[in-house]
Structure formats: C-alpha cells, structure tokens
Design brief:
heterodimer, A: alpha+beta, Rossmann fold, OB fold (Dihydrolipoamide Acetyltransferase, E2P), 2 domains, six-stranded mixed beta sheet, five-stranded antiparallel beta sheet, about 35% strand, B: mainly alpha, MetI-like fold, about 80% helix, transport (chain A), ATP hydrolysis activity (chain A)
C-alpha cells in the first residue's frame, strides 16, 4: 500500500564507505531485491531502512514522508531476519502476537489476527510449541507471520532463506512470494543468490561496493546488464573483451568476433573503437557442423554431462575460451573441431566498468 | 597408571576442600563439651544452644536482613549496569567492565578503609546504612558479571525484532530481555547473598554501634569460648548455602546459571 523512496543513502564505517549514495524506489506492492556479494552494502541499506542503523546522509521516504529520524518502533515496518530471531522464551502464538500485545489490542482480536497470519504462512496446530521445537522452515514461517501480523507498511527481508537447506529454500521462497502478492505489501529483499532474486523480484538492484550498479527488472538485468560486473553476478556468462567497429542500422554495434562480424545490441553510450565487453550467455551459443557458411570454427576442450544438457568448453582460433550448453545427445568429444553459431539476439555489448 | 594418578590427585583436592566442612559438621553434632573430631556421641544440643543465645539470634537476623537488602539492591543496580555495558562499543565496554569489577580486584581491606573514610565523611560511619552500602559495593561485581554473562547469550537481533514490532526500550526489556536473563539475575543474587552473609573484613570495620553480623558474633565468641556452638553456627551457614545452590539448580539449572 506504500511507495518507498530511498534517496542518496550514505554510511561510513571509520574510513570505509559502506554506502555511497544508494537510491532506490519501490512502488506500491512491489518486491525489490538487493543483490550483491557480501560487503556490498545490501544489508547495511536494509538496516538503515529498518532504523537499526543511522545513515550519515540521505533520506528514506514512505509515501513522500521522511522516516529517517524515526526509531524502528515508530516505523511500522515488518522485519524478517536471517537467523529468524524468534523470542526463545515465547510460544509460537506469543511470538506472532508480540506486535499486537505491544499495541495492547484486545485479546480476541489478537487471537483472530494471529490465526489469520499463521494460516497465511500455512503453519497451524503448532501454536503452543516453543521455537526450539520447530524446524528451520517452520521457524522462518513463524518469523514471517510475526512480521505480517502487524500489517506493516513495508516488509524487509534479510536473506531469509540463507539458513535453510536447498529443498526448503525453494518451498519458502514461493511462500514468501505468494504471501507478498496476496497481502500487496511493498517489500525489500536482501540476497546474494541471483536465482532467488530472479524468481522473486519485480525489480532487482545489483549492488557493488556500496553503490547500486543497476536497478531494473530481472529480465533487463540478465539480458541487458549495464556493465560486466552485473553480467557476471547474474548468471553464467562468457565475457570477452571486444572493440565495436561501427553502429548497425538498428542502433546496435558491429563487433568482430572469431573471424566474423557480429551485429549485436548493446549499451547506448559505447562509441565505436572503444574497448568494451561482449557478453555471450551460454544459451546464445550453439554447436553446428563446422563446414557450414559463416560459422566460427572451435576446438572442444572438455565436456561435462549435466543430464538436461552437455556443458562444453571450447576455444577459438585466437585462444578465446567459451562455455556453452549443447544438447545432451550432441556427439561432441574433447579434441573435436566443431562449428559455433552465435544467436546475436542473446548477445550484448557493454562497458567493462560503468563510468 | 596415569588414570590412577589423576584420580589420586583429584581425591586429594576434594579432601582438601571438603574435609574442613565435614570436620565442622561433625564437631557440631557432638554430645561433649569441646569442639573436637570425631565427636563424642551425637546430639543437636549445640544447635539449640546457638538458637537460644540472644547474641547469636540477633546477629543472625541482622546478617539475614543485610544480605537480603544487599541482594535486592545489588541485582537492580547490576542489571542496570549490565544493560549499559551491552550498549557500549567493544573498546569502551572493556574499560567499563574493569571499572565495575574494581571492588573484586582491590584487597578487601583497602576497600574497607576507603569506605570507612568515605562513609564517615558522609556522616554514615558506624551506621546500618553505611554497612549496607559497603556490602552492596563488595557484592556488586559478582552480580554484575553473572548478569553480563547472561546478556551476552542474548542475540542482539532479539532487541531489533522487538523494536521493529513496535516495542520501546522498556517494553523490550520487560517482555524480552528480562525473561531471558532471569537465570543470570538469580545466580547474581545468590552470589550477592553468600558474599554479604560471609563478609568479615568490611563488617568488622564498618559495623554499626551495638550491631553484630553473624561472622562478627562468631569471631567474638571464639575469642573467649571454644565450645561447639560455633561449629553449629558454621554448619547452619553451610546448610543455607547448599539450599541456595539447590534452589538455583531446581529453578534454572546450574549449567545455565554459570
């Protein structure tokens, strides 16, 4: 129900700049992920938003009103922690009811709202248990219910799946998405797992050393990364130094690659002749008969059978190494010469570092 | 060979620690007129003698009164101090902790002399209030350390979660911290009780006019007499301590308390 604006958030620890002008927005009901490696400032951003930490500069606006000076208890934001942070001395019911008890709501209303919240996270019948008698997945459901029951203006999730095993992670991830969609709560979600961010988010902010490297939809982040860092962080990619020759008629670039000239789309600011990076996702490459017209000859270095696909590593005449996925039935063996075809619609030209 | 040796060493250590207690308890049960081990016949008459003595009864009551007040005041102060310790940065907290435990590090006699001058200056020399203050000063570090240890077990995310759910500082303390550190507060209170009940040096210098705590009364008694009443008093102290430890064990479990 809420629009969130984070404007120029800056935070310094001693001499290191943990946040360097982070700006983000989330529209009503949107789920925005903060994606990046540890130390990139994603958790610091979330903690500033929750009010657990004071930014040195910048502002956090809820529907246009600044909350930066408010203590956490006055913000009415739900927070879900990586380690759940359930109160160990309280039962599941009392944990979920905590925010309602603090607000001194009538007991009957507390009971009804706790029941609703627990139904929403599909955890019923365990109301009297203590947190330590629950599995990790159940604890995270309780934590989610506890944050939702206060009907927060904003939901903040700090790597909520990091402590769960792979199978549960999938399950709780979908649950979080369902609950967020159902309740139409605006949410920020911190994670270092790009697959998680892709699956959950309306938009992703890829963070790098205290700054937002790119803030866009998962599709754009994956297919149209703003710089090589974003491409590397959002999935498998071959990233090859390249110099575009000139512009194509439709606004792309002519890039010499493996002895042929590829017409590829790219970041607009690149000038012909500048050094740039050519991104080829594994799905942009396929293997064909080496005799055909216009193919790039390549030497197979190694293969690995993955079940659904055959992962191959090949090298071009100039020594460039590429990874790609071929059909599992492809008769490919190390030492063979094959033909490489590039689907230029899935290629992308970008600067190495965005200036 | 090694096992036998270590068992023997352990046996010697236990004997060293426990034999005096056994001897005192045994001596208190004697039917004879002299404090000696083994006792000559069995009887509880020295306990009766102890309780019949007005000097000892008054001393016991004063000791209990001072010890209970010490527990209450010390636990409240130590809890506040421990919360402050939690809020400080790591470097400041180390300095603060040393300052708070100073009465533990200084010789008791030195603290006693210091307090004597200080309390006299305040006009509280030789009063019950002065003695009470002194007991709190000495007992404080024990309770402080026990509560700091309990607070360190509490994940800081607890307070953040509580705040994000709308609780202010006091609400978070009452609903989350207090229940989680209660074992540490009980342990700290027990320490404070034992320290106060056993305190000798401080009490000797600061005792109020006409008032004697139990250790002082025993000391006076032993200066002139050597009958087993003293052993009976000591035995009662030991029993009180054991009851306290068992109570803590029953309520919170010793593992969690330490």
């Amino acid at each position: 129900m809420t629009q969130i604006d984070v404007v120029g958030l800056t935070k310094r620890y001693g001499t290191t700049l943990a946040l360097d002008g982070v700006s983000l927005q989330a529209r009503e009901g949107e789920l925005v992920s903060l994606l990046g490696p540890s130390g990139c400032g994603k958790t610091t951003t979330l903690r500033c938003m929750a009010g657990f930490m004071d930014p040195d500069a910048g502002d956090i606006l809820v529907d246009g009103t600044s909350v930066t000076r408010l203590p956490p208890q006055k913000r009415n934001f739900g927070v879900v922690f990586q380690n759940y942070a359930l109160f160990p001395h309280l039962s599941v019911f009392d944990n979920v009811a905590y925010g309602l008890a603090v607000r001194r709501l009538p007991k009957a209303e507390q009971r009804a709202r706790v029941a609703d919240a627990l139904a929403m996270v599909r955890l019923q019948g365990l109301e009297d248990r203590l947190p330590r008698a629950l599995s990790g997945g159940q604890q995270q459901r309780v934590a989610l219910a506890r944050a939702l029951v206060i009907r927060p203006r904003l939901l903040l999730l700090d790597e909520p799946l990091a402590n769960l095993d792979a199978r549960l992670r999938e399950e709780v991830r979908w649950l979080i998405r369902d609950v967020q969609q159902q309740s139409r709560i605006t949410a920020f979600y911190v994670t270092h797992d790009q697959a998680e961010a892709m699956a959950l988010s309306d938009r992703i902010a890829v963070m790098k050393a205290g700054r937002v490297a790119q803030f866009a939809t998962p599709r754009e982040i994956y297919q149209r990364p703003a710089e090589a860092y974003v491409a590397r962080f959002t999935g498998d990619a071959n990233i090859i130094p390249a110099r575009p020759r000139d512009r194509t008629a439709d606004g792309g670039f002519h890039v010499p690659f493996g002895g042929v000239m590829l017409p590829v789309p790219g970041v607009d600011g690149i000038r012909p002749g500048d050094p740039a990076m050519l991104m080829l996702r594994p799905e942009a490459l396929s293997l064909i008969d080496p005799g055909a017209e216009g193919v790039i000859p390549a030497l197979v270095l190694g293969t690995a059978f993955l079940g659904a696909a055959l992962a191959c590593e090949v090298s071009l005449a100039d020594g460039t190494r590429l990874r790609l996925q071929a059909s599992p039935h492809a008769p490919v063996q190390p030492g063979m010469t094959v033909g490489l075809r590039v689907d230029t619609a899935h290629a992308w030209l970008m600067p190495d570092v965005l200036s | 060979m090694m096992r036998a040796l270590s068992a023997a060493v352990l046996g010697v250590i236990y004997a060293f620690l426990l034999l005096p207690l056994v001897a005192v308890v045994a001596a208190s049960l004697t039917a004879g007129e002299l404090m000696r081990v083994p006792p000559q016949g069995l009887s509880l008459k020295w306990f009766a003698r102890f309780l019949a003595s007005e000097t000892f009864r008054e001393a016991l009551l004063l000791s209990l009164q001072v010890a209970v007040t010490t527990v209450v005041v010390t636990v409240v102060l130590a809890t506040l101090a421990a919360l402050c310790h939690r809020a400080l940065s790591r470097r400041l907290a180390a300095t603060y902790r040393v300052a708070m435990t100073l009465p533990l590090l200084l010789p008791e006699l030195l603290t006693a002399i210091g307090l004597l001058f200080f309390l006299n200056g305040l006009g509280l020399g030789k009063t019950l209030t002065g003695l009470q203050i002194a007991h709190v000063v000495i007992a404080f570090p024990f309770a402080f350390l026990a509560i700091v240890a309990a607070l360190e077990q509490v994940d800081p995310a607890m307070e953040e979660a509580s705040a994000s759910l709308g609780a202010g500082g006091f609400g978070t303390f009452r609903r989350v911290l207090l229940p989680l550190i209660r074992p540490g507060m009980l342990t700290g209170g027990l320490f404070a009780f034992i320290v106060s009940f056993d305190m000798f040096t401080i009490s000797l210098l600061l005792k109020p006019v006409g008032g004697n705590t139990l250790p002082l009364a025993l000391f006076d008694f032993l200066t002139y007499d050597f009958d087993p009443t003293a052993a009976a008093a000591a035995t009662l102290s030991v029993i009180a301590a054991v009851i306290g430890v068992l109570a803590i064990e029953r309520m919170v479990g010793l593992k969690r308390a330490f």
